Predict the structure.
Amino acid sequence: MFKDTQAFSGFSVNDLEATKEFYSTVLGVDVQSDQMGLHLNIPGGRPIFVYPKKDHTPASFTILNFPVENIDEAVEALTAKGVAFEHYEMTDEKGIARGLSRNMGPDIAWFKDPSGNILSVLQQNP
């Protein structure tokens, strides 16, 4: 039934203008807007639809993962743009969970968009 569908993903935010500014300026994503919301044009995939919701509740899980070649460089560049990384028990002082060196998955660092949705940058190979 869905073998040939052009499925896409979406999520809600509480401030479209702040979201557009963050994704386009801070993250460098191609963002298009229309009367319904925003379309994040991520290379290699279908657009991601972002829509306003008055009673928005931030996702309590990672909604977007951005693979990077060098996680330390990505974290430093985003930090310089004002992005604050989340710190958990398994993260280092930069907010990076170092999975590669322990054969426990990728190196990953989480941060939030202006509406509190959780995003990440991750490095899968050294």
